[in-house]
């Protein structure tokens, strides 16, 4: 990703009547951004489906990211049975998916994410977590893996919002927790629904394609720029900070 490409993305953002001043906050999604957890989630969904005779492909679960468990189960049910799942089915199947997930090898940090967070801290940006997850295992690891970057007061999780992504509420809440507004922030998300949420909150959105979803699908979902790694996210944030400071 060259400076020219990054500045062109900034121009397009501004041409849409949006404002980006020197960012003071960077909002980060968790699954597929800070942690390489999506392959485990996808495998857990697939194992649950196989066990219950529900037809599914491993890769289809990547673009579903950000949906609630219930909504994913209903997609599968409507396709196979032509109806929504009952409350009981949702509870039982989601519990199985969670059990499969917990039995998987531990999730690793996303390659390059430490660089992206390090860049933000060097530039004096406040990092904010904006996740739809309520998964205690990963949330509990943030303090050790990303020491000091995400204090308790700057986390938006499943428990803080009434409307999940793609609703703008999670990212709006993230801005609130950072004590700033969209004109002083950037957002980083890897899923189409997450990108849509950040973009609808008016934030300059960096879509990072860390999973097997088609090239361009994050731009289509509203990302202002699409990159392929967290190392590139570091470059984008660094360039935006320098160029908006002029
Ligand atoms: Mg994600």
Note poorly predicted spans.
Answer: none
User: In whole angstroms, how far apart are the ends?
Assistant: 21 Å
Q: What is the total tally of β strands?
A: 6
Going by helix content, strand content and strand pairing, the class is alpha/beta
Give the count of helical stretches. Answer: 10
Instruction: Give helix and strand order, one letter per element, not per position.
Output: HEHHHHEHEHEHEHEH
Net shape: globular
Helix content: 40-55%
Ligand kinds: magnesium ion
The fraction of residues in strands falls at 5-15%
Radius of gyration (Å): 18 Å
Strand order of the largest sheet: 3-2-1-4-5-6
Query: What is the residue-mean pLDDT, rounded to a whole number?
Result: 95
Sheet of most strands:
6 strands, parallel
Report on the structure:
This protein has 246 residues and is an alpha/beta fold. Helix content is 47%, strand content 10%. It is built from 10 helices and 6 strands. The protein has helices at residues 3-15, 38-51, 69-81, 87-102, 113-123, 136-145, 169-178, 192-200, 217-220, 230-244; strands spanning 25-28, 126-130, 155-156, 185-189, 204-208, 225-227. It has a 6-stranded parallel β-sheet, with helices on both faces. α9 (217-220) links the parallel β5 and β6 (225-227). α2 (38-51) crosses α4, α3 crosses α4 (87-102) and α5 runs parallel beside α10. The longest helix is centred in the middle third of the chain and has 16 residues, at 87-102. The protein is globular. The protein starts with a helix and ends with a helix. The model has no long low-confidence stretch (mean pLDDT 95). Bound molecules: magnesium ion.
């Amino acid at each position: 990703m060259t400076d020219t490409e990054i500045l062109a993305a900034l121009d397009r953002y501004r041409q849409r009547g949006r404002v980006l001043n020197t960012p003071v906050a960077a909002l980060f999604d968790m699954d597929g951004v800070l942690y390489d957890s999506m392959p485990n989630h996808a495998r857990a969904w697939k194992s649950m489906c196989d066990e219950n005779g529900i037809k599914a492909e491993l890769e289809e679960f990547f673009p579903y990211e950000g949906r609630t468990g219930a909504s994913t189960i209903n997609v599968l049910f409507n396709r196979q049975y032509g109806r929504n799942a009952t409350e009981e089915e949702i509870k039982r199947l989601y519990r199985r998916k969670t059990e499969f997930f917990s039995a998987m090898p531990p999730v690793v940090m996303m390659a390059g994410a430490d660089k992206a967070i390090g860049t933000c801290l060097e530039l004096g940006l406040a990092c904010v977590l904006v996740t739809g997850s309520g998964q205690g295992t990963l949330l509990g690891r943030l303090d050790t893996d990303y020491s000091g970057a995400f204090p308790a007061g700057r986390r938006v999780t499943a428990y803080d919002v009434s409307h999940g992504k793609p609703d703008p509420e999670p990212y709006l809440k993230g801005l609130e927790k950072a004590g700033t507004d969209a004109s002083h922030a950037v957002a980083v998300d890897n899923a189409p629904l997450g990108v849509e949420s950040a973009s609808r909150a008016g934030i300059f959105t960096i879509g990072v394609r860390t999973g097997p979803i088609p090239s361009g699908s994050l731009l289509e979902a509203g990302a202002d720029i699409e990159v392929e790694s967290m190392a590139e996210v570091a470059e984008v944030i660094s360039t935006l900070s320098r160029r908006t400071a002029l």
